[in-house]
Amino acid sequence: MKVYRTSDVAKIIGVHNNTILAYEKSGYISNVERSKNGYRIYTDKHIEQIKLARLVLKNDIVKVYMIFKVREILKTIARNELDKALDLSKKFLLQIQVEKANEIILIKEIKELIKFHIDENKKISLKRSEVSKEIGVSMDVIINWERNGLLEVPRNNKNNYRIYSEHEIILLKTIKLIRKENYSTQCIGKMIRKIEANNFEFLHRENELLSPIGDRQKDMENLICHLNKMKED
Fold this sequence. Notes:
It contains 10 helices and 3 strands. It has helices at 6-13, 17-26, 44-57, 64-78, 82-120, 128-135, 139-147, 166-179, 185-200, 213-232, and strands at residues 3-4, 33-34, 40-43. A 3-stranded antiparallel β-sheet has the order 1-3-2. A hairpin with a 5-residue loop joins strand 2 and strand 3 (40-43). Helix 3 (44-57) packs antiparallel against helix 4, helix 4 runs antiparallel to helix 5 and helix 5 packs antiparallel against helix 10. The longest helix has 39 residues, at 82-120. It starts with a strand and ends with a helix.
């Protein structure tokens, strides 16, 4: 049986040594034995488990609960409970497919919202307190969204107060819609930037998702394929 040291595994996978140690600490790989001089001894099985971890952890978190599902699956694989891991993976894939369908509905709502505001073509300049009433959320919520980098609001050159135009109103209402679906803050930020790019060019694109939920679906399909092969070996 061929064995490897931490640096060997890191080189094979293409990551830092600390990443390998972090996966071990997180329980994503089976128990790692030590040599007489204290060095970790990895096997081909560990390398396979690390590759699977890289496969399902490489994409951004779409929704917070998903990372807990992924962690549970990886820990189950590390315990060599492949039947259970396969069952969990298939159930998670079904959830992802439902989330993908929900996102398609959400995108339709967002496009209708944007089109409505563009057609109205209002020239407005509101204060944050006025925006709070318009959007239907508290000022603290708006401040929190801004602090989290979900949108950048221009300021008045004379008094440095924030100026909320129709553009910001569209983005804030869009954020409110997306937040209802429990996307991660990081994911929402990227979705908003995609929506507003090139003067809302997204409005005219068909069959395009906002989040990497499609990538997550492919990851799980690949994982299920790998697990089936592992069961056959």
